[in-house]
Design goal:
alpha+beta; seven-stranded mixed β-sheet; 11 strands; about 45% helix; disordered C terminus
Amino acid sequence: MEIKELHEVLKGMLADVDTFCEKHGIRYSVYCGTLLGAVRHQGFIPWDDDLDLTMPLPDYYRFLAEFPAEMGDKYDLVTFRNDKYCRITWMQLTKKNTTFTTRSRIDLDTNWGIYVDIFPMIGVPEKNWQKRLQTFMIQTAKSMVRMEYLRHIHFQYAGWRKINLLAYCLPRSFRLWFADMVEKHFWLDPAAAAKMGTVDGAMFIEKYTHDQWREFIPAVFDGLEIKIPRKYDDLLTRMYGNYMQLPPPEMRKPHFAGDVLFSTDKDYRQMRKELNGETQNDTAR
């Protein structure tokens, strides 16, 4: 896989999101490694193979509801509600007629299109016991959602925390109900809280203040003009420490490595069929 080819697709996806959000007044920001790349590299981190965005919770829900009607011919929005083997509690924007996964995963019947992660930014309650409860419930919901995927790939759960072991034994209907309940009651509107955090792959904690996300400035991202938070230095220091320093060479690796399957014009389901056909033919011989 040529990572520059992947970057071009992701940049096109970012341009479409930016255009849609500007048109409909939906707030968003590049986030995590994408924000770091915008500041340190004026584009993608050269070895990075994904793109991260965040939206305040009300905007996140508007995007989820309104984007498919306008852009559904090009994209899918994947959540644990519409994809049985979805491994996340946030949403992914995937481009139709593309593939990005590994040979060892392609047989799993989930959406393997080229994707952008979109994380909801939610409010954090003031009292310490409420913060601890919110964190516990959000982490538990993540464990609940990913169990179908882990069960399918025969993940060895020895050594897991008890919460993961419990989730592994529960029926899918209960796990979906639980994740829905957590989203309804523990994903708080950030406008009603002093501090905020994002529901993503890390442990949920209060990370940010409103002041850090209030104002945005233009930035160039691989030739595309986007907006980033004016206080990006505060944010990136909070995330990465001395963020302008490059990591050592041995850490400059993409998330996907090894037997990568990648296509900018072939649907992952078609690629799966072709690969399985080749396997069957090889077996017959």
